[in-house]
């Protein structure tokens, strides 16, 4: 019998993202593919003791997932931007201090005199500025950043939903693979018993030797199927351990839940619209898309704020020191300074200097004494208040272009939100259709299995009595095994689709 592999499902559309449910029914050897890489993981951790339930596996995966952690850091960065935008409403205050050396001819920055010497100067200032009006840009920026932060929180939840659905898919793959191992082991036991009976019948001369050879060939095929199924268990266990970011699948076990058969469940009646209405209010990707649309509208208001005047108020304190500044100090000495005497000439009526007659007085002598640092700082102390009004007139149409671009951004955000809702609706519709199909296929496969079981028992009786050759008997046996595999496949596809629908309705993923 040629090894085959029957895929359980197509791409499973799920909540915040599509989760691949590539579960396979394994009646024979299956072609393996490399394990799906987990979407995240920090440093791998050791597997805690005890078997994992689905709920526990989801919790561990969400805790270790690097995509979730990366999104958390991104949201923290958005929160920092929000805090900064709120702080922009506060006045700014800055203190400055400088020290300079001027060599050669230069202008003293405090006395404003030319000096031909080395001058050391210090300048000290404290300034503050407050924006009084800026076209409401600051307040609109805060509102936009609040929306971006809330959207980031929903992005975190979306990342958690993605990993939860991936874990649920891999978990059910592993449960299915383990069940297939048990089914194939039962087939090996049946083949061994059949070979043993055939050997006895051959010794008694009741059957031909070809029947024994056919039975041995079937037993070898069944044993190969067991090995293949066991390899699949190891494969899916590794895949799930990687999603949980564990060091190794060694010692990692899951708790096999007791799952009801699909025909024991209530017949699923498609109501995707009701589920969509519920999911639309619950799914974080929808909320994030709506919040980003509102954020884009705030961006438009921010861009329009550049049309308005900008009014700011500022004030400052300043002082300084110059090494060239000095105060004259009396030395105690004086210098006689002569001055000529003038008198009115009667002839001309004009003042004329009287020859040989002078007047004089003593001028006190002084010497420059450099001013002390503290004295200069106190005497040079000054204050300043300033209002600044900036009125935009023409800036290369930058304001108009920014408004137009932000309006386009609103339309893009609206389209993205609409696409998110459309994808959600389509995923729910597809999940409903697949769940109903799987439930129907299970019922049909179960009836087929029951009919083929009866046919197999009749073929076994005829084979044991030498009325049926080994080839026809093996065909009847493999037909039964194929029907059983289809039934198991349909069962787990239905379970996964139903869990996806429950997830859309706000119920946690659990078995």
From TrEMBL:
It comes from the Bacteria. Its main location: membrane. The keyword Ion transport does not apply. Keywords: Cell outer membrane, Membrane, Signal, Transmembrane, Transmembrane beta strand, Transport. It is found in: Cell outer membrane. Residues 1-30 form the signal peptide. The keyword Signal applies. SUPFAM superfamilies: Outer membrane efflux proteins (OEP) (SSF56954). Belongs to the outer membrane factor (OMF) (TC 1.B.17) family. This is TolC family protein. It comes from Hymenobacter fastidiosus. The lineage of its organism: Bacteria, Pseudomonadati, Bacteroidota, Cytophagia, Cytophagales.
């Amino acid at each position: 019998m040629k090894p085959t592999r029957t895929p359980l499902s197509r791409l499973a559309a799920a909540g915040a993202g599509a989760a691949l449910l590539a579960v396979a029914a394994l009646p024979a050897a299956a072609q393996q593919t490399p394990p799906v890489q987990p979407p995240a993981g920090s440093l791998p951790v050791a597997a805690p003791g005890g078997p994992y339930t689905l709920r526990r596996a989801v919790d561990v995966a969400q805790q270790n997932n690097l995509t979730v952690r990366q999104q958390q850091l991104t949201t923290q960065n958005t929160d920092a931007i929000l805090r900064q935008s709120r702080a922009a409403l506060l006045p700014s205050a800055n203190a400055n201090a400088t020290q300079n050396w001027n060599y050669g001819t230069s202008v003293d920055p405090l006395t404003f005199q030319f000096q031909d010497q080395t001058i050391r100067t210090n300048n000290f200032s404290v300034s503050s500025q407050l924006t009084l009006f800026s076209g409401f840009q600051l307040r609109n920026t805060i509102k936009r950043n609040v929306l971006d932060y809330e959207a980031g929180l929903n992005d975190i939840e979306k990342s958690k939903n993605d990993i939860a659905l991936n874990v649920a898919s891999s978990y059910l793959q592993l449960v299915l693979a383990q069940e297939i191992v048990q089914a194939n082991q039962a087939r090996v036991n049946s083949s061994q018993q059949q070979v043993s009976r055939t050997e006895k019948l051959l010794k008694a001369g009741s059957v031909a030797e070809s029947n024994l050879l056919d039975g041995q060939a079937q037993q070898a095929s069944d044993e190969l199927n067991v090995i293949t199924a066991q390899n699949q268990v190891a494969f899916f266990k590794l895949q799930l351990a990687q999603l949980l970011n564990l060091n190794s699948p060694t010692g990692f076990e899951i708790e096999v839940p007791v799952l009801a058969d699909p025909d024991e469940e209530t017949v699923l009646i498609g109501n995707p619209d009701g589920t969509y209405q519920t999911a639309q209010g619950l799914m974080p990707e929808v909320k994030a898309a709506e919040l980003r649309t509102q954020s884009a509208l705030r961006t438009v208001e921010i861009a329009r704020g550049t049309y308005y005047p900008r009014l700011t108020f500022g004030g400052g304190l300043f002082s300084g020191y110059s090494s060239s500044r000095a105060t004259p100090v009396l030395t105690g000495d004086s210098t006689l300074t002569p001055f000529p005497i003038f008198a009115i000439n009667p002839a001309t009526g004009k003042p004329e200097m009287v020859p040989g007659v002078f007047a004089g007085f003593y001028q006190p002598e002084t010497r420059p004494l450099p001013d002390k640092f503290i004295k200069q700082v106190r005497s040079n102390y000054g204050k300043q208040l300033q209002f600044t009004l900036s009125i935009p007139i023409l800036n290369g149409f930058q304001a108009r272009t920014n408004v137009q671009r932000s309006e386009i951004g609103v339309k893009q955000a609206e389209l993205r939100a609409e696409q998110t809702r459309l994808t959600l609706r389509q995923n729910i519709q597809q999940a409903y259709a697949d769940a109903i199909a799987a439930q129907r296929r299970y019922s049909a496969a179960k009836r087929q299995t029951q009919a083929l079981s009866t046919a197999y028992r009749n073929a076994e009786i005829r084979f044991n009595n030498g009325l049926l050759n080994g080839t026809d008997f093996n065909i009847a046996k493999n037909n039964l095994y194929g029907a059983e595999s289809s039934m198991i496949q349909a069962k787990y596809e239905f379970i996964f689709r139903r869990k996806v629908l429950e997830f859309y309705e706000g119920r946690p993923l659990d078995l």
